[in-house]
UniProtKB/TrEMBL annotation:
Protein name stated in the entry: Transglutaminase domain-containing protein
Transmembrane segments: 21-44, 50-70, 82-105, 132-155, 162-180, 200-216, 250-272, 681-705
Domain Transglutaminase-like: 535-618
One Pfam entry name: Transglut_core
Keywords assigned: Membrane, Transmembrane, Transmembrane helix
Sequence segments annotated as region (Disordered): 634-667
Keyword Membrane in record: yes
Amino acid sequence: MSGKEAASRAPRRRTTTTRGLTLWALGYLLVGVSLATAAAWPVYESPRAVIVGVVGGVAGIALGLLVRLLRWGPLLGGLAAVGAYLVLAVPLAVPAGMSSAAAFLSALRDAVLGVVVGWKQLLTLAPPLGEYQAVLVPLLVVSLFGAFLATLLALHPGRRASGAVAVITLMCAFGIAFGVSAPSTVLRVGAFALPAPRELAVGIALFAASLAWLIGRSRMQRAAALRAVAVHSIARRGAPVWPAVRRRMLAAVLIVAAVAAGVLVTPAAATWSDRSVLRDGIEPMIVVREQPSPLSSYRSWFSGDSLDATVVQVDGDPGGIDRIRLVALDAYDGQDFHVSGDTRFSRLPRTATAGPGRAELRITIGDAYRGIWLPSPGTLVAAPRFSGARGDALADGFHIGDDGDTAITIASAPGGGRGLVPGDGYTVLAEVPQGDAEDLAAARSGQSTLDPEAYPELTEWAQLQEQPRTGAGYLELIDRLRSRGYLSHALLQNDAAAGWIAALEAQEAYSFAASYAGHSAARIEELFSSLREQEAKVGSDASPQMLVSAVGDDEQFATAAALLARHWGFESRVVIGARLPAAEEVPGIAQCTEVCTGASMSAWVEVRPSGGEWVAVDVTPQFALLPSTITEGEQLPEHPTIPEQPRSEALDPPQAQNDSRSDAAPLEQTASPLLSQVLPVLRWVGIGALVLLLLALPLITVLIAKRARRRARRTVDDPELRLVGAWEELADLYVDNGVTMLGAGTRVQSAQSTRRPAAVALARIVDEGVFAPHPPAEADATTAWQLVDRERADLDGSVGRRQRLRARLRMRSFLDRIRPHHASALSLRRLALDTLTVAGARRQEEDA
């Protein structure tokens, strides 16, 4: 073959080799996308997830191939990838958005936000996720952008191509990291059991595919290099056949041994420790948000066997601690009380010492309780000391809210769920609460934080009571609320309610009255509506028994009291727990000494005036006086008697048990026509003023910074530093006004370059003060700053108003001082004064 023929075939061979490498890489990428989709299947278990993974991966591969062929740069390639994502996101990951234009825009917004927040959403929902909302967005991000990046790397001609293996591995790890903690079901083949077969199959397939691609790619490149040598007629010595065969056999043996070892070791390794995924390390607040409101299930303590079952057992001397808190609920959304989303849970130190005002108690969880909320007395001063087989896990999962009164443990519980289970025990060290009712009674109320339009019945009833807006007035409202209420824990008088009814009958001649559960705004408004209407019928001066009309228990009355506190301008929260012997006895809810049962569980409010401590206020209604039914216009007896309370039969509930008040008449809204016209104008004027202020804020910042710098230089205590500060101020003044001053040489030389007498005079005064054998006097510093002031006035008088404003706002004096040649002086004091000199520093050392 002639040289010309060899030269003509060389480009053809290079093209063939490049095409072969490209096809080999594309095959590996398709396998990687398939494995990543298979690994993510347990997270979703939906056919849509397969479509998203495969289509997104193929689109990423095609886009990467296009970017390579057209030789686009990183910026253009990245923009193309983002554009492809925006095009594919809605039809692939959020298909519900294709129903209408408005739904499409909403889905597109969710797809964009899902790039950032979608990962957290994956951890807050229990798998399988299916197609719920935008949960498929993270999978599309992984498949599209992962395949795009892997393609760019795999098609690279150099060593960078091996980075595609790392990208494909991370894509496969997505499904495992965001999946469930439990591995796939054990695969049994006869007597052989293989745990986690799906994870093992994905790992082996990924390993084999990556190894095959790397070896094949290397051989293709080597073959191409050998052909290039042959084209140029360069003689090469033939290699023996046996070494090549031996290398292949050795590689095959190593692969088989690695796979066999993985299959054999996996069963043993699976039992070494529990599998951990990202879902297991989620933020405590996410677990808290998943919990239903504890107040919503308050009545379950009084139902059936829970009434006499043990909730917690308390051992030790509680001292002045009067209550065991389960949880403090400080946020209300109109439906239920819950822990505020702004609450942050953190850990406590493990060690603390007992002392005055502290009590150490041993708490054991009983059969009637399990959950994440940690029963605790008072405010914990140290992390509990958990005991038992689950002690370490409970300690690792322990967190406490930033208010210090709500503690949780998010450790996994046997049988599913999280938190404490019956039999768990721990020792706590807590402080005795400081606030009491006297402190609250003497407090002044603040501005109401309750919307009167959302709670018109509550607002009107509170106004009818004519109480002062003080703590004493609020406590009087609570007394009236409790005395005019009637205790009932159920809607029906059945076997489930027999226990608590018998307990109340043992204390008083109790008659059952039905009451709905729930503490929504509608339910609380209904409670206050009954109180207001009853008072309107019988008059505010009627006897106490004639004013009883609201039926419920701690769930409703605690919510009502908390909302009244907010209407009165106090902070409030609802607390669920049990009262200890040190607490004031409340009829209807039993105190507990060593064993707290369901009958001891109560809910109360804690109120805090501005700058004060939380004060517990009991809200359990009375049950000695039955509600009175008064017809509108009925003439009340002049001397009413209290009849013997008869036994009443259970009333059948009405058809609808919803506590909403949809039939209530809408409130009349009256507004002044002039005010309705002026308010929009004022709003737009305010918005415009705010925009102008934001635009002017950088300029205002420059003026304030220059003024602060000048003040710092002028007010420093050392006269020598004030002298040099005056020189620095003059130099900055010249820079901002465009006066040229050479930076090299002495101060006098720099001043002479400006051709301004004031600069020369100031330079001489500063040099004399700095380099003289004695420190400068106060008069020298005063003279120096007077020169600066006169020079500033002369410069301002020589230019127009616009030039003066430009000089005031120019930032050149700041920028010149942060250039690289000033980097060594970037300390806070140097930036503020910029006046320390070697001579001055030495003189201060000599004086010291």
